[in-house]
Structures are given as C-alpha cells and as structure tokens.
Amino acid sequence: MDTLNILLVGFISIVIVNNLVFTKFLGICPYLGVSGRIDMAFGMGMAVTFVVTLSGTLTWLIDHLILMKMGLEVTRYVCFILVIAGAVQLVEMYIRKFFPSLYESFGIFLPLITTNCAILGLCLFINLWGIDNLLEAVVLSFGAGIGFTMAICIMAGIRENLNMADVPESLKGAPITLITAGLLTLAFMGFAGMIR
Amino acid sequence: MSKIRYFIKQSWLLILSSFCFGLLLAIANAAWYPRILQNEKEKLNKLIVGLVSDANDFQIVIEDVNIPGERGKIIKTDIYKVRNAEGKTAGFAFVGIGSGFADKIKLVITIDSKCEKFLGFDVLSSNETPGFGDKIKEKEFRTQFKGIVAGNLEIIKAGEAKNGKVMAISGATVSSESVVKIFNIYIDKITQKIQEAGLD
Amino acid sequence: MTTKTTEGPILGQTFIAGLWRENPVFRLLLGMCPTLAVTAAVKPALTMGLSVIFVLVCSNIVVSLMRNLLKPHLRILMFTLTISTFVTIADLFLRAFQPVMSERLGPYVPLIIVNCIIICRAEACASKNGLVVSIVDAVGMGIGFTLALCVLAGVRELLSTGMIFEAKVMPAWFVPWAAMSMPVGAFITLGLLLGLVNKLTKGKS
Q1: How far apart are CA A183 and CA B125, in angstroms?
Q2: B residues 138-177 near A, CB within 8 Å?
C-alpha cells in the first residue's frame, strides 16, 4: 500500500506540481516550436513520453548498476546523452519498420527529441532527487512525459485561438507565446504545496 | 573479415576520439576531484560552525541511519559529531530532507551533546517561493529553533511560541510546517541511535 | 594579400552577426531553457554565459579540425560526444572553483549539452568552415548569448530584489516584485524583450 502511495504521489507531483515545462523550464524549444497545432503537439508529446520513459529507466539502471558501482560518476553526462541518442535512434528504427503510418505522422519529431532538454533534464533530476527504486524511476519518467504532453497540448489549444486575436504587431509569434506561457505557469503555481 | 574492416573504417574516428575524450575527462577529474570534495566538506563545516558556536571540527560517527520517512519511505542519513577545541563533544549534526512547498528542502540540523536541545538549523538547499517560503532561511524564523527542547515540535499561527511550539512565517505556513516535519521525522531515531552508540 | 583583405570583413561580419543580427536568443530563439532558468540574477546568468562560451569554442575547434574525417551518419553522435565531454569539464571546473555558483545552476550546467545553440553551430558553421572562422563564430555567438542572458537577468534581478550584482540600486521606497524571480517573471520578461527587439529591428529596416 505504501509503495502504491509513493508512486501515485510521485506521479501527480511530476505531472502537475513539479511540471518540467512550467517549473523547471525544460523542453521550452519544442514547446515554442511545435505548439502551433494541437494534433502536432499531441504527436510530439507522445513521442517524448515514449522516449523519456525508455531513457529515464535505462539511465537509472546504468547509473545505479554500472556507474555508481564502479565510481565512474564523472562520465555520467556522456553516458546519459549517449543513452538518449541511442534510445531515439532505436525508437525511430522500430517505428519505421513496424508502424510506417505512425512514422509518417511523428517521425519528423524524433530526431528533434535528442536535443529536447526535458529528457536529459529528467534523467538528471531523477539522479538529483536520489530516487533509489527502479519502479519509482519508471513512474516518474512516464509522468514527466505526460506532464510535457499536457503542457504542450494546453499551449497548442490556446495558440489556435490566439490566431484570431488582435495581437500587437511586434508581439506576434514567439513573444506572445512566451507571455501566455508565463500566465500558464502562474496558474500552475496554484498546485504548489498540494503534495506534502 | 571484410565486415570488421568496414566497421573499423567507418568508426575509427569515433573510437579514437572516445579514447581521447575519456583521457581528457580522467585528467580533469583527477586534478579537480580533491578540491570538489574539499568544497563540499567546507560548506557543511561553515553551516555547522554557524550553528554550534564552539565547533572546531566534525566527523561522521554513525553512517547510514535508516529514518522511516513520509509514507513508509526509508531515508538514509549520516550523523556527524561536532567537537570543540578541547576535543570534547559540542553536539551532533545531521542532514534532513523533506518535501517543501515547491521542491525538496534539505536542512542541516544540530543538536546538543546530551540530545536534549536543538542548537538550530540551516538550509542546505530549497526552492521555496521567493519572498514567502524563502523566509525559512532568515534569522527570524531560524532562531526559534535555537535551544528548543529536542522532541516533537508543533507549528502555531498565533499565540505564544514556547514549549516546543514554533511560530509559522505568515503567508508561508506550508513551508514552516515542512521544516518542522523534517525535525519531527528525524529526531527520535537520531537520539535513539546516538544513545545506543553511547556517544554522549 | 588579397586573401587577407577579403577575409577580414567576413570574420568581422561573422562576429557581429552573433551579437545582434543572428543573436541566438533574441533572433534565432535557440537555447531557451537556460535563458529562462538561470536568469533570476545576473551572476548565475554570467557564469552560465561563460560556460557556454567555453563549451562552444572548444566544440567548434574540435569539430572544425575533424570536419573532413566525419562520416555523415555518425556526425551527430560525434557532436554530442564532443559537447558532453567539454560540458563535463566545465561542470567539474565550476564545482571545484565556483561551488556556490555550481550549486545555484544545478542541473542546468549539464543541460548545456542539449542547448540547441551548440549543436546548431557545430552543424551549421564548424563542420563546413576552417578553424579561424569557427572560433570567431563561436566567440561571437557565445558573447551574443551571454549578453542576452545578462540583459534578461538584469531586468529580473532589478525588479525582483532592487539589486544588480547584489548591490542595491533602487531607492528605499521600491517594493520588490517577488514574482519576477519566479518562472512567471522569466517567461513574461523574455516575451516583452522579444517584442521590443522585434519593434526595434522593424523600425530600422
């Protein structure tokens, strides 16, 4: 019961309270770039969720089973980024081979994901928070992906409507998106303190 | 055979450069690692000296104490013994972690040599709201914990703060509660361990 | 002689481009994560900027030196390997000599690895150009990035604490806007600054 409780609380915490986009500024580049249309945003979110779950789990395993045991913490960043790049490559190959239609729809996002800060960021935060349990690491990684998807979809929904709004000329595009994002983070701050 | 040759032809640069980069990292690490350790030690030292007035040096006396934390989670911590210039025990210190308003709060907590009174705490790291929860770092709030009886603490919002009661920061009840909660989670187990080991 | 006269202005242009016309933050919208995350005060922003300059220059040098040996499909792998090595070195350096700043920046130092500016410059400039051009480009881009970070951090630190570089500059009646040091302040300040830059460039051309 306790384990379930920890997992559930951890999941809610990373999706809402410590959302990577709104409180840690991770994954802002795709957040600004791809959030123009809601279906694209959703595709990107799904791709990120998939890769982040995979790489979060793998990096936790590598960190705990190899690097910490052998005192090789100094190579942590190099290993993490290689694992992520490898995971992205693998996912791309797998999807291209078995789900060609899916590849058509979100294949273009896959190479972009390697340089998505949210993924490396999550791997680093899992390490920083001292998560010492594989199950928790998996749930947190998955939660981070869901949190990212949620953030990017909310943004896309707002931006679709923003197209019809009368925005000052020089604020069009990225500036107004950032300001909107600012207001969204303000809203999400309301969730802070929910998990204690 | 040709396959291996093809492989080497394609990737010799990668293999060679990984080797070079590995060497580079090893050199940098070897050169700076002692300094990094020294920095970490100094930071803790500085905080402890600020809390225990006659502290001279400190060392780990009990490693990996299992603390039953929130929701049945086990947290590990080390107990440090703080000694004064004459080599006598001036108190004990440990690092406590708990969840705050926004993110984890990490505290250094000190307790006197008889495990009767807290000598105070300082914040190692936190991410509380600036201007509100952030005030847990300020003297006003922290001095309340100086000399308070080591036992279960309680947070109050109004009235008189004495006998194990601590006045919350106005506008940041959650952060204040989190700090007190960290105290309460750790204290029993820590005193028990210190007494078991017969250190006082 | 002739080569020198043609090279001079090009180098100058490459350098200037990074500062304003192709400023990574304000014009190209690259490297947004650190821009938003570390700009609550000027000092961490400056530290971040200098680390990025270091990594950018080193990785551009290495990539430029081995540009003719690169196999196309292993290119990105080489870039990430190079960048992550130098980021680790920068991180170790900060932890050894600037422990306070290192703690303040936390995981955003290793996150330089995925800063789009660096991989973008490696791909767009260093893998096509010679050593000198690559270095000049890296320095220009790096300084442009640092400047942008410092402007943003300056505005935020001034409004959130009334201080710049931890020295009080605002009059005593000034009430600090705590919100400016929170995520909200980061997003909205950057949005307004981008709007300002858009306005200025439009007026010129």
Answers
A1: 27
A2: 174, 177
Q: Are B73 and A2 within 8 A, CB to CB?
A: yes
Please provide the DSSP assignment of A29-84 as one string.
HHHHHSTTSHHHHHHHHHHHHHHHHHHHHHHHHHIIIIIHHHT-GGGHHHHHHHHH
Q: Are A141 and A52 in contact (CB under 8 A)?
A: yes
| Domain extent listing, chain B | 52-196
Q: Total structural domains in chain C? A: 1
Cβ-based neighbours of B170, under 8 Å, separated by 6 or more: B157
- Beta strand ranges found along A113-188 (DSSP E): none
The ipTM is: 0.84
Domain that holds residue C100: 30-204
Please tell me if residue C163 touches chain A, with a CB cutoff of 8 Å: no
Least CB-CB distance to B101: which of A6, A78, A193?
Answer: A193
- What is the full per-residue pLDDT of chain A (196 aa) written as tens digits? 678 888 888 898 888 888 888 888 888 877 777 777 788 888 888 888 988 999 999 999 999 888 888 888 888 889 998 888 888 888 888 888 888 877 776 666 677 777 788 888 999 888 888 787 889 899 999 999 999 999 999 999 998 888 888 888 888 888 888 899 999 988 888 887 676 5
* Axis crossing angle, helix A38-62 with helix A117-128, rounded to the nearest 10: 40
Q: Which of B75, B47, B67 is nearest to B190 (CA)?
A: B67
β-sheet with B118-125: strand ranges across: B57-68, B74-83, B89-99, B104-111, B118-125
The reported pTM is: 0.85
Distance, in angstroms, between B132 CA and closest chain C CA? 9
Of B32, B43, B129, the CB nearest to C92: B32
State how far the Cα of C205 lies from the Cα of C203, in Å rounded to an integer.
6
Using the beta-carbon criterion (under 8 Å), do C33 and A179 form an inter-chain contact?
no
Residue C11 forms part of a structural domain: no
